[in-house]
Amino acid sequence: MDVILQVSGLRFATGEGILVLDDVSFGVPRDGTALVVGPASSGKTVLLKLLLRELTPSGGQILMLGRNVARLSPTKVTQLRRRVGYMPEQPAILSHRTVLDNLEFKLRALATPLEEMPDLVNRALQLARLEEEDQSLAEELSPLQHKQLALASAMVTEPPLLLCDDPLRDLGTDGQETILELLHGVRSAGTALVLTARDSEPARSLVQVAPQGTVVRLRQEAVL
Predict the structure, then answer these.
(1) Structural domain harbouring 103
(2) 154 & 184 share domain
(3) pLDDT tens readout for residues 181-214
(4) Contact yes or no for 123/85 (Cβ under 8 A)
(5) Are 28 and 10 found together in one domain?
(6) Has residue 170 been placed in a domain?
(7) pTM for this structure?
(8) Fewer CB under 10 Å: which end of the chain, C or N?
């Protein structure tokens, strides 16, 4: 099986000695999905930050896209992050700029060749169903459309792996259904997914994205 992400015996403790994650292990095939489920403050966001090397693990190993994440140089970490889409729970959005500007800004920040940008932006807008909102200011978007823009931004570089932190949180039923459909589209297009959710109905809904995917349960609650 071709694995895009392998987490083995992962452990993380804060500088104050608070154990947040202990012996977390799972794998994600290149065409697969992992759903990380747990209560608030159980370490779901911490896990994603470890995958992105924003934090350093206290133990264990992360192999992503064929690389040992803990051993990467700062330059290699930057290169790795360009190949991993990240949809945080509270995405950084340029409120006074248009949807189009937000996507182009990210591509410019990643030094994307100018001739590649129009096609990348158009495909991301289509994937997130924001084609008709490309000239709308981000501050004028609905909460659901903010999520759609966050997804478009995460996918604008067409990464093989997408990390989503609680993508259904704070959305009503209709909004959740829309995001679920979009994630189905991302998954069907060949992008592997790591999704997080609290133990709740949204978590059960996310399982629909890939019924045969891996479910990782974080039960320990840490005070962060």
Answers:
(1) 91-158
(2) no
(3) 999 999 988 999 999 998 666 667 777 666 667 8
(4) no
(5) yes
(6) yes
(7) 0.90
(8) N
